[in-house]
Design brief:
heterodimer; A: Amidase signature (AS) enzymes; 8-stranded mixed β-sheet; 3-stranded mixed β-sheet; 15 helices; B: alpha+beta; 3 domains; 9-stranded mixed β-sheet; 19% strand
Chain lengths: 489, 477
């Protein structure tokens, strides 16, 4: 059986119609992961043994009670290696956690397992989710399935590549400044960053606590809804999750355009971006206009400060969040040290990669006595202004459309020595995180080199269901997911 | 030249909650190392804090009992520093928006009551504990204490002497114990104290350079260390040397204070708002509800004992020093409405006995029922107060009925008038000289006859009724 083009929905059908059993299916995915990982490097850990055990349990469940089986019963899913998994190595793409076996499951993992999913692998990522190209992983870069000399994007690069190449039917990534949406765009799949507070962060290794959010990465809008349904919702272990009820997202897939009012930025905002990306974006605007969706021009005057604000807030929080990796209790500890201070220094010098060190230094500086007001406080104030820009826009529109990235996937190694240009490529994704809004990244065709281009639909806080309706409409009318047929691995 | 000390105290009190402040692990002292731990209090990757509402309730209770203004909104912040006992590399505390501010405690000084203002009270988590004495070449860490809820109570620099500092700490400890917020056990570290000290010329309005003296964890230590540090400041000032702003530790063996870390090593804690916790919102109704958990405070109790129960101020002061004692006293009074006799018995006999047996009143076998029964026998005249005192010490080993003990030991007062009269007459006949003195009007000699009678009867008489009899017999002789 060719599993390379299957999503969650198709797999559920196969399992329920008993075309295949969970164990066989899981074995197929494990085999495929082992076969293709040397090419793509999407996996950090493949969980052969525990996956087969879980699959066997799902088979038994399906045998026993066909009526009340769980929503993801027996569906193999690989997830970003940022979620801690009990008794299964969790590295966060870092040397400092290269041998870390967590004693507990993240809430997202627990919910996936409770829904019946078979977690069969942990996917590659930029170290501590810091990066836009997956080149900052201690375990080496991931290759883009559309073009192996290109980046899959980051930080959820392994997740995006694995979904696009059919190594997993779907995945869960995390998005702090675009880390779900940008790799989704680069790899031609769908990636959704839910509202801040929609999905629990408990057990998701923190990069920037006020921005991090987990979300689905999929081959269809329907799969996105199915996955979000099982992971979303209040978690008593995460005080920042909201008690807002979780709608049945799968019931919001009609793709009805009648209530949509689409907000678009004036073209001036897009100066300097890749013309092919701009063209693809304008084609999407046109498609909506063609279906009589009102197109409303909006202003977001403060988003030009978003990257600056982001790199103060995110690095500040990161400098504190990453202080726990000190070699005292778990993770890497330097073997040669003279005293406590020396142990801290060497452990962290050896354990962290360059980009992580750079951000810890930036954040430490921004929070230092005498600089706090000029940097962190000011950034927090501007962050509020950016959020207000969005709220103002949402008084006129239901959804905002924007490109995901100013460019398509770049060549591996191309920007490694230029962190600033790497940071600036997150210009369209970052404002959404700063405002805590939900956003879904959708493919918008290929450029002339057959590289995917992405657009994102941004919604009001906790309006994921409306966003899914818009995405379902766009998916149907544009046939955008057909580009995945170009991937042949 | 005359100098005066300016002292402010920072007191950390562990809250008496069942579980820790940000996770469900038990908050208990003395468990096996690293048994009360979980991903949250170990700072494992991905773990997040969730605020224990009961810790908030206790902190609010303390703030109100210390006359503070409790704020409707306060915030948590991260205090960043590296230390092995600090698992996350930061402590969750409160910084620019603390739970409560602007309170005070009153202390008694030679010149009357003095208010020591409290600047702020905030909630925070305790750290783990480094264990350096297990192995010569390794240090171990016990994280059982990591995440135990604390309040930090920061006073204004209103304290002028080591004695005042000690009084402030005693009153503070007593209040916290009274309202059930902290067990006050300084040996186990439930209550810990740091002091900021500076010295200036008497009458000056400017502050001198201050130093911080850490870990003053007994009243004796606090007084001695402060006296020592004040002396050191004065010595430096007298010899025109500069006082360096630094952190000191008190060496009790050598009785000196020594610098703990130099200035270059002083931390920049890089405080910022804790993004994993929402602002702490307390409505007025919630604050009012928490206030109901506050019992009568020591000073209120003392006032009531003096005004309503007619106790001497000194006695009342002793009783309210310890809530267990005060509670016991009130239990007794409820059983037997003789507050003065009960207070006097507790203060003169019971406390001394507890002291010599090194037990607390809750560990004592002499219940309020037994104590009041004993006192009642003296009021009824069945035994004398001295007998009652002797019987009282027996009660610690003897659980039998009091009347049984009285009978067995022959303590009962001889109320048989005939027997008494017979004895009195015998004594009178043996002491004609003294009788003559009495007849000449020397009333003091009555005491002599009473003493003789007491001897003869081995103390088993009721002095009041016996005195009447002696007098009658002397008059008739």
């Amino acid at each position: 059986m060719d599993i390379s083009k299957l999503g969650i929905f198709e797999i559920k059908n196969l399992l329920l119609k008993r075309k295949i059993c969970c164990v066989e299916l899981t074995k197929l995915y494990l085999e495929r992961a082992h076969k293709l990982n040397p090419i793509l490097n999407a996996f950090i850990t493949i969980a052969d043994e525990s996956a087969i055990l879980d699959a066997r349990r799902s088979d038994e469940n399906i045998q026993k009670n066909i009526d009340s089986i769980r929503p993801l019963e027996g569906v193999p899913i690989a997830i970003k290696d940022i979620f801690v998994t009990q008794n299964l190595r969790t590295t966060c793409g870092s040397k400092i956690l290269a041998n870390f076996i967590p004693p507990y499951d993240a809430t997202v993992v627990k919910r996936l397992k409770d829904s019946g999913a078979v977690i069969f692998g942990k996917l590659n990522m930029d170290e501590f989710a810091m990066g836009s190209s997956n080149e900052n992983s201690y375990f080496g870069p991931v290759k883009n399935p559309f073009s192996p000399d290109r980046t899959p994007g980051g930080s959820s690069g392994g997740s995006a590549a694995a979904v696009a190449a059919g190594l997993t039917p779907a995945s869960i990534g995390t998005d702090t400044g675009g880390s779900i949406r940008q790799p989704a765009a680069f790899c031609g799949i769908i990636g959704m960053k839910p509202s801040y507070g929609r999905v629990s962060r408990y057990g998701m290794i923190a990069f920037a606590s006020s921005l991090d959010q987990a979300g689905p990465m999929c081959r269809s809008v329907r799969d996105c809804a199915i996955l979000l349904e099982s992971i979303a919702g209040n978690d008593p272990k995460d005080s920042t999750t909201m008690t807002t009820p979780v709608p049945h997202y799968s019931e919001w897939l009609a793709g009805d355009p009648s209530d949509i009012r689409l907000g678009v930025l004036k073209e001036g905002y897009y100066e300097g971006i890749n013309p092919e990306v701009l063209k693809a974006y304008l084609r999407v605007v046109e498609l909506f206009a063609k279906h009589n969706v009102p197109i409303v021009e909006i202003e977001l005057p403060h988003i030009k400060y978003a990257v600056a604000v982001y790199y103060i807030i995110a690095t500040s929080e990161a400098s504190s969040n990453l202080a726990r990796y000190d070699g005292v209790r778990y993770g890497h500890r330097s073997e040669d040290y003279r005293n406590l201070k020396d142990m801290y220094k060497k452990t962290r010098m050896e354990g962290f990669g360059d980009e992580v060190k750079r951000r810890i230094l930036l954040g430490t500086f921004a929070l230092s006595s005498g600089y706090y007001d000029a940097f962190f406080r000011k950034a927090s104030q501007v962050r509020r202004l950016i959020a207000n820009d969005f709220y103002r826009a949402f008084s006129k529109v239901t959804t905002i459309l924007m490109p995901v990235t100013p460019d398509v996937a770049f060549r591996l190694g191309e920007r490694v020595s230029d962190p600033l240009s790497m940071y600036l490529s997150d210009i369209f994704t970052i404002p959404v995180n700063l405002a805590g809004l939900p956003s879904i990244s959708m493919p918008a065709g290929l450029n002339r080199d057959n590289l995917p281009i992405g657009v994102q639909f941004i919604g009001k806080p906790f309006d994921e269901h409306s966003l899914l309706n818009v995405a379902a409409f766009y998916e149907r009318e544009s046939s955008c997911m057909e580009i995945l047929s170009r991937v042949s691995l | 030249m005359k100098y005066e000390a300016v002292i402010g105290l920072e007191v950390h009190a562990q809250l008496k909650t069942k579980t820790k402040i940000f996770c469900g692990c038990p908050n208990e002292f003395g468990a096996l190392p690293n048994t009360n731990v979980c991903p949250v209090c170990l700072g494992l990757p991905g773990a997040l804090p969730v605020l224990n509402r009961y810790a908030v309730e206790l902190a609010v209770r303390a703030a109100l009992a210390l006359n503070c203004k409790v704020h409707n909104e306060s915030r948590f912040a991260r205090k960043n520093y590296f230390y092995p006992d600090l698992p996350k590399g930061y402590q969750i505390t409160q910084y620019d928006k603390p739970l409560a501010t602007d309170g005070y405690i009153e202390i008694e000084t030679d010149s009357g009551l003095k208010k020591i203002r409290i600047m702020r009270i905030h909630l925070e988590e305790d750290a783990g504990k480094d264990l350096h004495d297990i192995s010569p070449d390794h240090s171990y860490i016990d994280f059982n204490r990591s995440g135990v809820p604390l309040i930090e109570i920061v006073s204004m620099p209103d304290i002028s002497s080591p004695e005042e500092a000690s009084k402030y700490l005693k009153n503070l400890r007593n209040i916290l114990m009274y309202i059930g917020v902290c067990d006050g056990n300084m040996e186990e570290g439930s209550l810990r104290c740091d002091a900021n000290v500076s010295v200036r010329r008497a009458g000056s309005n400017e502050f001198g350079v201050k130093t911080e003296v850490k870990n003053l964890n007994s009243f004796k230590f606090l007084e001695k260390a402060l006296a020592c540090e004040i002396e050191r400041h004065i010595r430096l000032l007298e010899s025109n040397q500069k006082i360096e702003q630094q952190t000191m530790l008190y060496d009790s063996k050598e009785q000196v204070t020594r610098p703990m870390r130099s200035k270059e090593e002083s931390h920049d804690y890089r405080y910022f708002e804790e993004p994993d916790l929402l602002p702490l919102i307390l409505t007025d109704a919630e604050i009012r509800a928490y206030a109901e958990g506050i019992c009568e405070l020591p000073q209120q109790k003392k006032k009531r004992y003096v005004e309503e129960l007619r106790l001497k101020a000194y006695d009342a002061e002793i009783l309210v020093q310890d809530k267990e004692i005060a509670d016991f006293f009130e239990e007794c009074v409820a059983l037997l409405n003789e507050p003065e006799r009960i207070a006097s018995f507790i203060i003169n006999d019971y406390l001394r006995e507890l002291n010599s047996r090194k037990i607390s009143i809750s560990q004592s076998p002499v219940t309020s029922h037994r104590l009041t029964a004993l006192i009642k026998r003296t009021i009824e005249g069945r035994i004398t107060l001295n007998m009652a005192r002797e019987i009282f010490t027996l009660l610690f080993e003897d659980s039998r009925d009091i009347d049984e003990i009285i009978k067995e030991r022959g303590y009962e007062v001889v109320n048989d008038t005939e027997e008494l009269v017979k004895s009195i007459r015998e004594i009178i006949s043996l002491h004609p000289a003294e009788l003559a003195k009495y007849k000449k009007g020397n009333m003091n000699i009555l005491g002599f006859f009473m003493g003789e009678l007491m001897k003869k009867m081995k103390g088993r008489i009721d002095p009041r009724s016996a005195k009447d009899l002696v007098k009658r017999e002397l008059d008739n002789a």
